[in-house]
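Need the bound structure for pyridoxal-5'-phosphate, inputs here:
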Amino acid sequence: MTQPIVQDMTEETIFTERSEDSTSAEEDYSPEKVKRSTVTKTVQNDELWKLSKRQEPSLSASTSESDIEALGTAESDIEDKVVKMFAAMGDADVESSLRIGEDAFMSAKHVNTSDVSEASLAARFSKTTMPQEPGNPAEYMAGMLTSVCDDSIHCGNPHMIGHMTAALPNFTRPLARMVTAMNQNSVKTETAKTATFLEREALAMLHRQLYKRDDDFYAREVQNAKRTLGLFTSGGTIANASALWIARNRSLGPREGFEGVCKTGFFKAMQFNGFTDAVVIGSALMHYSMNKSVDILGMGEQSLCKIPVDELFRVDLKQMEDAIIKFQADNVLIVAMVGIAGATETGSIDPLEEMAALCKKYGIHFHIDAAWGGPLIFSEKHSHKLKGIEQADTVTLDGHKQLYMPMGCGLCFMREPELCDSIKKTANYIIRNESFDLGKFTLEGSRAANSLFLHSNMCILGVKGYGALVDRSVRLVRYMADTIMEHPLFEVILQPMSNILLYRHVPAQFSDVDRTALTEDQCAHVDGMNRALQNTQKMVGTTFVSRTTIFSPHYKRNVVAMRVVIANPLTDEGNINKVLADQVALITAGFTPVDSDNHPMLTN
Ligand SMILES: Cc1ncc(COP(=O)(O)O)c(C=O)c1O
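Answer from helper R.:
Posting the output first, comments after.
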C-alpha cells in the first residue's frame, strides 16, 4: 500500500543541489562594503569575441589564380570544420569543461555576484557583429562559463526565496541531455513518434488529478486522435492565452449564417451576434498574462474587468455578480470568468466553488489560472483550498513552477476535450485532420518534448512526493510568518494562504506606534526603507527576497512589501533565519531610503 521508496526520496535526496551551512561566516554589511561591491567587474567577454578575429580571405581586382585556389581551399576547410561539429561524438574538451562548469555552478554558495552590476552586463554583451569564421567550441564554452555562468542568478540556492523558480530534481539534468540528444519536435508524430503518445499519457494523468473523471472517460480520451485533454505550452502566459482563445472562439462559434470568430475575426463576430462589447472578468490580482491575452485576441486591455478583492486578497463575489448582471443587461459578452488559484503576488486563492456556481448560473466560460497553486491538488492537507477546480472549463498550470520542470513548460487543461475543436487547425503536410499530431491544437508549432520532464517527475515523485513538497513549503512559509511576527523590526502584511508571504521592515521609530495613523511622509519613508533594504540585500547577493507594491486592506493604502515565495525543496528553517539575519544586519549597518526610482530620499 505505502510507497517507501517515494517517501524516502521526497524531501531530501532528489533535490540535491548542495547542502549549505546556513549559519555560516558573518558578512560585512558596512555601507563601504556595499558601495565597493557595485564597482563594475572587468568583463572577460573577449574570450568569446577573439574567435571572430581571424582573417577572412577576400577577392579583389588584384586577386591571382593562387589566391582563388587558396580561397577554394579555405572554403572547403570551413565546410569540413562545420560539418565535423555535427558528428555524433563531440569534442571531449567541451564535454569536460561544461561538466566542470556545471559542478561549479551547482556548488556555488551565493545567489548573486555582488560585484557585477546590470550596467556592466549591458556593456559586456554589446557587440553587434557576428564572427565570420567558425570558431573553436571548447574556447567558446570556456569564455561562456566565465561571461555567462559565473554571474548568473542561482535560482536553486536555498536562500533564494523571492521568486517562483527553484531547484530541480537531480535527474532532470541528465534527462535534459537525452531530450536534447533526441531533439524531437512534438508538433507531429513524424518527428515525435513516442513522445506524442507519452505527452498524451502525461496530460491524462494530470487531468485526472484535477478533474477526477471516471475510468471510461480516460480510457476513451487518453489516446483519442480527434481531441486532446490539454495543451503543452512554453509557459503559463501561453496557457492562459490558449484558454481565453478557446473561450472566445467558443462564445462566438459558428452557427447558421455565421462561420465563427476564428474565420470572420472579432469585429464581424461582434456585429453578427449583436454584442455591444466583450469582457473577461476576474479579480484585480489577475496575472499580467491576461492583459497580453486579451490584447492578442483583439479584445484590448480595456476589456479586462478587474473586480476588487477582500482583505484576504480573494475576489469579492458580490461585486463580481453585480458586474455580471450589468454586463449582460447591457448586451456585453462575458468571454470568460477567471479564478485565481495562487495569485502571483499574494498566493491567495479565489473562492473557486462559488465562482463556478456563478458561471453556471450566467452561462460563462470558467477559467482557473492555477499556474502557481495548481499543485496544491497533490496535498491531502491543502487540496481542499482548490475545491471547485474540477468544475472549471479550462485550467492553467505551470510546469516550471511547482511541478519542478525546467524552464519552458505551461499546461492548459480542458474539462471537456471537445473544447479543443474551437481552436483546431490542420495542414496538408503535417497536422492532418486524422493524425495524432498535437500541433493541431497547440498555439505553438515546433516545440521540444518537454512532456518527458513532466512524465518523469509524475512517475518518480508520485502524488505523495509532490504532496510532501507542497506541505513542506506551506509549513516553511508559516514558520517564516511566525518568526517575523515575533520580531519588532518586521511586520507581516499578508498572512500566507499557501506558500507566498508578504511582510515589511518597520523602522524602529515606528515599531510601537499605531501605524495606521502615519503621515504621508512617514509612509513614504517606510516604503523607501523597504525598497532600499530589498535592493541592498540583492546587491550583497548571499540571500534574496523579492519586492512588490500592493494595496493593504489593513492600512487602506498601497505599501511596499517584501515578497517571499518558498517552493525550493532545499530551503529549510536555517535558510529562512539567515535571510532574516542578513536583513537585520543590513538594517543595523544603516542605509538611506530610496524612492521608486531608487534615488536616495530625504529622511524625516
Ligand atoms: C498566476 C500566474 N499566472 C500566469 C503566470 C505566467 O506564467 P509564465 O511566466 O510561465 O508565462 C504566472 C507567472 O508567474 C503566474 O504567477
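Comments: Residues 1-13, 16-59 have pLDDT under 50 and may be disordered. Residues 164, 235-237, 240, 287, 289, 344, 369, 371-372, 398, 410 surround pyridoxal-5'-phosphate (CB under 6 Å).
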